[in-house]
Amino acid sequence: MGGRVVKKSKLPPLLAEIRSCQACAAHLPHGPRPVVQAGAHARLLIVGQAPGRLVHETGIPWNDPSGDRLRAWLGLAPDVFYDEQRVAIVPTAFCYPGKGKSGDLPPRAECAPLWHAPLMAELRDVRLTLLIGRYAQEFYLRENCKATLTETVAAYEQYLPRYFPLPHPSPRNRLWFKANGWFERDVVPVLKRLVAAALT
User: Is the pTM above the cut of 0.90?
Assistant: First the structure.
């Protein structure tokens, strides 16, 4: 009997490989605990920087005050946000890098070049990719990044329909939010509409 051959997804074994990754173990003060969420049919992709301490402890992405604000921006309830078949969450680096003098250390530079390309090859249904913070924006937008994060976020329309650059929703950025009221007033409503459309 004939019939179409259904190609088996490489995503499950790839995710298992990522979750057992030890590539940066020697440089991680709290040890490796890769955090990633992805399903083959996810339509929204969230690329952040790296898990924070609370996320490292729980293994749940964006399980902290930053995640609360992000979900409010997106207009997503936790049950939708954590549905891997609708939302993929892929940090620039998958492990908590540890604490620096002013906040967390930068994401390990080895991680994204190692894992992002094979992951993106398996996430074929993504309609919109959110680039949260400078590290994600520099990795994906490359030379199309503006001089500052503020300029990149303000020029978000230039990167649509594929990418939507955002500031990091960390409480540490409260002064940025206060100084840039246009973001929550003008940009967040557009973001909510596009996220809803991507998930429909």
Answer: yes
Cα 101–Cα 102–Cα 105 angle in degrees, nearest 5: 75
Q: Region 78-100: what's the mean pLDDT?
A: 96
CA distance 192 to 80: 14
Dmax (CA) of the chain: 66
> For the CA atoms of 156, 103, 68, 169, what is the dihedral angle to 10 degrees?
-20
> Does residue 1 register a pLDDT over 50?
no
